[in-house]
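fyi for ur records
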Amino acid sequence: MDKLRILLADDHAVLRESLSQYLATQPDLTVVGEAADGHAAVAQAKSTQPDLVVMDISMPKLDGVEATRAIRQACPKTRVMALTAHVCPLMLLHMGKAGASGYVLKASPLSELLTALRTVGRGEVYIDALLRLQAAGILAEEKHAKPRPVPDLSHREVQVLRYLALG
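which gave:
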């Protein structure tokens, strides 16, 4: 069985190095590179052609949203998953529009991160449990609210919203 090849992109060295060491203990995962900023993430993705990039959103030089967009354009087979502190459905939407297939919070347990890595690695979409709960709450509130005009959403925005609703 081939290992899932992962590139870690985060400006915090302790997090990046610790995560790299932890993932090395997993028999089906391997880290092929690390990047401390968005530009380095794009360059590393082009050179290593990983299966999956674990992308922080708030990074210097080029943020995770723009880096994701650049990676997906340069390496269409490479999937991107956000690993972030941003508990924000709007940020999830921005990452989805940029081409990310997953969104996991840094506050989540390692077991959820591993599940997300493997899920996105299989080509599926993964959204952190806390954001799924928030989306469900928002949708429940909206169900009881008066209808208001809905802005035109792109195909990708509708797709991300649908995945949020489905959990």
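The longest strand covers residues 29-35. thats all i got for now
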